[in-house]
Amino acid sequence: MSITHTIQEIWGAGSNQVPVQVTKSGSVEQNSSLTLGVVTNQAVDLQWAQAKLLSIFIKTDVDCTLKINSSGSPTDTITLAAGNPFVWVKGSGVPYPFTGTAGAVTTAFVTTTVATNVEIRVLLDL
After folding, report:
1. Count of domains in the chain?
2. Which residues, 6+ apart, have CB-to-CB distance to 39 below 8 Å?
3. Structural domain span for residue 80
4. pLDDT per residue over 75-101, tens digit each?
5. What is the CATH number of the domain that holds 88?
6. How far apart are CA 24 and CA 5, in angstroms?
């Protein structure tokens, strides 16, 4: 079964707008909607090989940190800014953002100093 994810962005200045929409289709999605209190290293079940990731979209209500593959010695650490989504789409021209461990992601950990909601959307082609 094919699953489609669509990511839309709009640049605007007054009445001048430039919209863009990117659509990817894959076979598996890993989606999470988390409501977190103050936490240090809350585990999130995310797993993929670099070649299989088609898109990832992460949005938080407050600034927090995403650690990849380990809470103590992460292969990658991504600072997530409140309301500013972290987005990556295969084929966008932007390099794959998870460089550690040959690009494989086996788990992730979220750390936040205040309560937050975290939305994670991942599309894979397995």
Report:
1. 1
2. 110, 111, 112
3. 26-124
4. 888 899 999 999 999 999 999 988 765
5. 2.60.120.380
6. 5
